Amino acid sequence: DTAVSQTPKYLVTQMGNDKSIKCEQNLGHDTMYWYKQDSKKFLKIMFSYNNKELIINETVPNRFSPKSPDKAHLNLHINSLELGDSAVYFCASSPPDRRSSYNSPLHFGNGTRLTVT
Amino acid sequence: AQSVTQLDSQVPVFEEAPVELRCNYSSSVSVYLFWYVQYPNQGLQLLLKYLSGSTLVKGINGFEAEFNKSQTSFHLRKPSVHISDTAEYFCAVNGGSNYKLTFGKGTLLTVNP
Predict the structure, then answer these.
(1) CA of A42, closest CA in chain B: separation in Å?
(2) What is the band of A103 on the pLDDT scale with cuts at 50, 70, 90?
(3) Do A102 and B100 touch (CB under 8 A)?
(4) Considering just the CA atoms, what is the radius of gyration of chain B in Å?
């Protein structure tokens, strides 16, 4: 009964390919996120969806496109992969109630380690 | 704008010793502060959070943190660490940007026998 699950756990691919990472949460949360963790462990938010609506879109190349078919799923599609895309990508979710969004703890998946060769 | 500075990238300690991991923040509004822990090959887990009220916050695994508004700090402490506490620790702040948590660069705590 994993709360936030991501697939695949590892993804090795060549430059120029297109790949997707899937994320699902069974916590009933309304808000979901994608974070990127680089080789120095620095975590940066990429996107956030609330009830399938995009609410945060940081400075991320257009090659990255999130898709939220329903509030339990947030997938990340990456076109034309580059070496610099190599990182660990974390999906996370937080509880509903817009008023509590400031203090809602994030629930993270275990990450997808993407290696672009 | 909000930011978080974790002053130490690595902290090595011996088992059963006390530890303090330092975190300073900046924000133009009232803040909510968090500490997360990341064990190897895992996602982050919440250790504790400060929202309001008592400035001393207790979390899981015997950790606690103290919010100091005048020094804009939120240092994490544990009086006696175990080998199993070896992990990366992240301080984070949410200072009014809905849904957007800003993380520090992390501190690697290594507990040696």
Answers:
(1) 5
(2) low
(3) no
(4) 13
Q: Between chains, do B99 and A111 touch, taking CB under 8 Å as contact?
A: no
Q: Is the pLDDT of residue A97 over 60?
A: no
Three-state DSSP class for residue B7 = coil
For A88, B37, B45, B77, B105, the CA distances from B42, given in Å and listed in that order, are: 10, 10, 9, 22, 17
Contact B77, B18 (CB under 8 A): yes
Q: Which of B103, B108, B106, B72 shows the shortest CA–CA distance to B3?
A: B103
Q: Is A32 an interface residue toward B (CB < 8 Å)? A: no
Cβ separation A92–B99 shorter than 8 A: no
Q: Point out the residue among B88, B94, B106 whose CB comes nearest to the CB of A102.
A: B94
Could you tell me how far CA A88 lies from the centroid of its own chain?
10
Q: Is the pLDDT of residue A100 over 70?
A: no
Determine the distance in angstroms separating the CA of B56 from the nearest CA of chain A, rounded to an integer: 17
pLDDT higher than 90, residue A91? yes
Residue A94 with chain B: CB contacts under 8 Å? 99
Q: Who's near A37: CB < 8 A, 6+ residues apart?
A: A43, A44, A87, A88, A89, A90, A111
DSSP of B12-48: EEETT--EEE--EEEESS--EEEEEEE-TTS-EEEEE
Give the span between the Cα atoms of B89 and A90, in whole angstroms: 16
Query: d(Cα B56, Cα B60) in Å, to the nearest integer?
Result: 14
